């Protein structure tokens, strides 16, 4: 039921934003931003459920919890960059949105380097 409510809020908000855009462009952007923030609240609800499941996984991983932490940071960075890029794109700043997406990709790549280095060390140890 939450998905239906979120969808209705999104569609209604965007229709309102489009109709207000004809009068004053700023109002359309403000309404779209408000809809994005409401959607972010829905995302955070589900993210809290995911976090409780991850706490259970933490017990299984014991020593290798840092890898799960890196994964969560990467997912969070992806959502944050995508959220900001979407708002920038809706406001008509496609260049800024592209740079935001590029920042997210480079950040995730930099976060993956310790995992890659650990993998390479493991392969080197096995190979002799």
Strand percentage: under 5%
The unreliable regions are: none
Structural class: mainly alpha
- Overall tally of domains: 1
Residues in helix, %: over 70%
The main pleated sheet reads as:
none
Shape label? elongated
- What is the C-alpha radius of gyration, as a whole number of Å? 20 Å
Q: SSE order, as H and E? A: HHHH
Number of strands: 0
Q: Roughly what is the average pLDDT, rounded to an integer?
A: 82
* Tally of helical runs: 4
Q: What do these coordinates show?
A:
With 128 residues, this protein is mainly α. The protein has one domain (2-127). It is 91% helix and 0% strand. It has four helices and no strands. The mean pLDDT is 82.
Which key features would you list for this structure?
single chain; 128 residues; mainly alpha; 91% helix; 0% strand
Compile the SSE list and pairings.
Elements: H1 2-21, H2 25-61, H3 65-90, H4 94-127
Helix pairs in contact: 1-2, 2-3, 3-4
Short synopsis of the structure:
The protein is built from four helices and no strands. It has 128 residues and is mainly α.
């Amino acid at each position: 039921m939450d998905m239906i409510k979120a969808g209705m809020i999104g569609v209604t908000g965007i229709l309102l934003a489009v109709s207000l855009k004809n009068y004053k462009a700023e109002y359309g952007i403000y309404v779209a931003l408000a809809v994005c923030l409401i959607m972010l609240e829905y995302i955070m609800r589900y993210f809290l459920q995911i976090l409780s499941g991850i706490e259970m996984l933490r017990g299984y991983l014991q020593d290798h919890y840092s890898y799960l932490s890196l994964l969560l940071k990467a997912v969070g960075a992806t959502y944050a960059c995508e959220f900001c890029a979407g708002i920038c794109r809706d406001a008509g700043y496609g260049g800024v949105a592209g740079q935001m997406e590029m920042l997210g990709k480079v950040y995730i790549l930099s976060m993956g380097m310790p995992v890659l280095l650990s993998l390479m060390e493991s392969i080197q140890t096995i190979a002799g």
